[in-house]
């Protein structure tokens, strides 16, 4: 197991390094003058030249990337109109629009996104696994066909459509839920949960469908294995076979998929955040792209990639714990 963990950790570090190289090069080798973008459209040529010198844009790209990488570990000093600003490690640079530290901007947005992702993931895993379990338990009956149609509809429906329908029905027509107005958990836990309930349900209804189908397929595959058929021949109740043997075998891929989805949602929830007005990472990324705020874009993409890679590594570990054959592979 130790060797397996070392290999996965080494692979994750390599992927993060490769991602940082590609992202930095892709966003800083852009059409137009980066110094002009950073300075603004009303800057004079002398001001643009001054910004270019401050950002060391005349250096080769690999030298600038080396400075960027060094700032992640040791911090960096920036010259501003009011003096020198120290950006402590991990430093992702300064925003072109606000001169604020990118790390601080991202950390301010992460709690809202984390609240959305964690709450929705708990709902969609419970709903998806429960639906898959019920589908297997009622296989061959009308209930199974109805659940199959529902999961197919859930997989085919975009999250913003589900969100709009829920807003129209639950907020506008029935008025049983308020329109989400994000409240930090530290300010009021009850209002935090109440205002996030609608986004949680919207994401869960869409994301639960793959879990339901995966749970159903894995459980049916396990129920068809020889050892389960032997248990059935010896008179083991079907409830025990489904709950103890089939469900246990189905949890390993579900755990792996869940970890990957949670990681990707840290950057992929921008539609939900935009629809419900949640001030999270996704909305910040949209604003940064719209204003061509390159340091913020690069920082957000790298942080999102970090969560995806971390989630992938954790998914491998959880999968290995649930199925020891993965370690031997």
Automatic annotation (TrEMBL):
It is a multi-pass membrane protein. It is found in: Cell membrane. It comes from the Bacteria. PROSITE patterns: ABC_TM1 (PS50928). One of its GO terms (molecular function) is dipeptide transmembrane transporter activity. Keywords: Cell membrane, Membrane, Transmembrane, Transmembrane helix, Transport. Belongs to the binding-protein-dependent transport system permease family. The lineage of its organism: Bacteria, Bacillati, Actinomycetota, Actinomycetes, Kitasatosporales. GO terms for cellular component: plasma membrane. It comes from Streptomyces xanthii. The chain crosses the membrane at residues 12-30, 112-134, 146-172, 192-212, 249-272, 292-315. Signal peptide: none annotated. InterPro entries: BPD_transp_1_N (IPR045621), MetI-like (IPR000515), MetI-like_sf (IPR035906). This is ABC transporter permease. Residues 110-319 form the ABC transmembrane type-1 domain.
């Amino acid at each position: 197991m130790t060797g397996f963990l070392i290999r996965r950790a080494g692979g994750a570090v390599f992927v993060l390094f490769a991602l940082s190289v590609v992202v930095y090069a892709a966003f800083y080798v852009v059409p137009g003058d980066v110094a002009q973008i950073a300075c603004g459209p009303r800057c004079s040529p002398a001001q643009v030249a001054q910004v270019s010198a401050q950002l060391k844009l005349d250096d080769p790209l690999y030298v600038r990337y080396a400075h960027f990488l060094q700032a992640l570990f040791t911090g960096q000093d920036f010259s501003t109109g009011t003096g020198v600003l120290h950006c402590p490690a991990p430093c992702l640079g300064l925003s072109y629009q606000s001169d604020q530290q990118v790390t601080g901007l991202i950390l301010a947005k992460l709690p809202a996104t984390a609240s959305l992702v964690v709450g929705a993931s708990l709902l969609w895993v419970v709903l998806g696994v429960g639906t898959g379990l019920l589908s297997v338990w009622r296989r061959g009956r009308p209930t199974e066909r109805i659940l199959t149609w529902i999961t197919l509809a859930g997989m085919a429906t975009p999250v913003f459509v589900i969100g709009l329908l829920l807003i129209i029905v639950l907020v506008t027509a029935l008025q049983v839920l308020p329109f989400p107005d994000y409240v930090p958990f530290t300010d009021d836990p009850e209002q935090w949960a109440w205002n996030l309930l609608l986004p949680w349900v919207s994401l869960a209804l869409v994301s639960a469908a793959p879990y339901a189908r995966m749970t159903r397929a894995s459980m049916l595959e396990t129920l068809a294995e020889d050892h389960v058929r032997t248990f059935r021949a010896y008179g083991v109740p079907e409830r025990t076979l489904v709950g103890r043997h089939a469900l246990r075998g189905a949890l390993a891929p579900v755990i792996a998929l869940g970890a990957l989805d949670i990681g990707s949602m840290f950057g992929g929830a921008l539609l939900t955040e935009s629809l419900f007005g949640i001030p999270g990472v996704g909305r910040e990324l949209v604003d940064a792209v719209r204003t061509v705020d390159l340091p913020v874009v690069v920082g957000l993409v790298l942080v999102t990639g970090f969560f995806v890679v971390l989630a992938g590594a954790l998914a491998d570990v959880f999968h290995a714990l649930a199925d020891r054959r993965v370690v031997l592979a």
